[in-house]
Amino acid sequence: MNTVHRRDFLRHLFTAAGVTVSPLDRLAFGTSGVAAAQQPRRIVIVGAGLAGLVAAHELVKAGNQVVVLDAQLRAGGRVYTLRDPFTDGLYAEAGAARIPEAHDLTRRYVTEFGLKLISFQPDRPRQTPPNGKRVLEPVEQARGALGNALWSDDSLIEFLDKGGAESPVQHYDKIEGGNDRLPAAFAARLENRIRYGAPVVAIQQDGHGVRAIVQHSVGRDVVSGDFLICAVPFTVLRGMDVSPAFRPAKRRAIEQLTSAAERRIYLQLATRYWTNSGNSGFELTEDVDFFDATFGQPGDRGIMMLYALGDSAVRIEHLMPDQRIRYGRDEAERIYPGMSTNFERGFSWCWGEAPWARGAFALYKPDQWSTLQPVAIQPEGRIHFAGEHLSSWPGWMQGALASGLRVAREVSARA
Ligand SMILES: Cc1cc2nc3c(=O)[nH]c(=O)nc-3n(C[C@H](O)[C@H](O)[C@H](O)COP(=O)(O)OP(=O)(O)OC[C@H]3O[C@@H](n4cnc5c(N)ncnc54)[C@H](O)[C@@H]3O)c2cc1C
Fold this sequence. Notes:
Elements: H1 3-16, E1 42-46, H2 50-61, E2 65-69, E3 81-82, E4 92-93, E5 99-100, H3 104-112, E6 117-119, H4 137-146, H5 154-161, E7 172-175, H6 181-190, E8 194-195, E9 200-205, E10 210-215, E11 220-225, E12 227-230, H7 234-237, E13 241-243, H8 248-256, E14 258-259, E15 262-269, E16 282-284, E17 289-292, E18 302-309, H9 311-317, H10 321-335, H11 339-342, E19 343-349, E20 362-363, H12 368-371, H13 373-376, E21 383-385, H14 397-412
Helix pairs in contact: 2-6, 2-14
The protein binds flavin-adenine dinucleotide.
Flavin-adenine dinucleotide (FAD) is lined by residues 46-52, 69-72, 77-79, 95-99, 148, 199-200, 231-233, 236, 262, 351, 356-357, 360-361, 387-388, 395-400.
């Protein structure tokens, strides 16, 4: 990676943290910028993640006819709160977990829907040094600010190690009751405009309109419109039939954008015993991050969430399911002794194995910011593209929302 590219990359990463705002998403702030429709357009949106939901929400408000198609039986995509495997009404996040202070777009919609934010973690997360593992001091703060995009880039870590960047310490929040309350609120507003259990297998367009082909267990449905918003990850779009084929540069962008490897392990414990020794339940180590997923939730029981990205995630991937839980217990025991006597049940989740995500979030190589992303966000005829991967905040809800607003403005500006 040459120096210019690295600087470019860092600029974008800091943008991701909300330190500056790039031209790509500048218009996302303030009003939505979606023009009232002179004549209602029929818009088909593929994907009811936050990108598709916010686009639908704003386009409906502007007077358009919208149909949202999602393969799953719920809205929210990678904003997914896990409840089932746990007892006492406890919950933990499979995807989006924390909302940085600077993410004003996410916060704007949290406020619009009357949802309540609570702290993600205690304000001073590391009171005592962890046992047995070196905490990554030089990158800790930067990761706090840069977050999800940082892990897999060794050269960046090296750069930060040498004092190449300063970053603000962030305060994070989460939505009381689970972050899935945000997509659920959008979905409630959109009512029956969302069709669940509707996997799109092909998209087609001609001079007059667009068609999404939905595969059912028996037969196929065709949903037609004037424009189509494709709000699914590129990892999924790769498997769709597109007719006529996109331009070669676009096809290359869809193929080449990689996504982060990630794995989460959840350990339900009889008590949040780590607090007895003054630990916050939040630690960043070389291999995994530890989050007390139940911080702020009532009761004695707790869920310790281990979050592995990059190489650590790939290593865990190769283990059998019960070995993954064993690995999690051993790691947690090293950091918070007492795990074995408090352990009740374990669970693990990986977005790479989820058929409608096929990866955690977009991981741009440094030069791809200037080469791949401009092509990736371009519309193809009547088809427009949204998703966290097509924003200045890849790996964040803010990115999905910003891209959804961008695409809603694009479509509303079409003749
Ligand atoms: C492990 C992890 C940790 C994260 N941590 C945070 C965090 O702490 N804070 C934060 O703000 N963000 C975080 N994020 C990022 C955030 O979750 C995403 O940026 C955001 O949810 C992406 O929204 P999206 O609409 O772009 O895509 P998605 O949420 O993936 O939505 C795409 C939708 O398309 C649907 N779909 C896919 N294929 C088809 C098809 N063929 N037909 C019909 N429908 C289809 C899917 O079912 C899905 O509902 C995290 C993400 C992950 C994975």
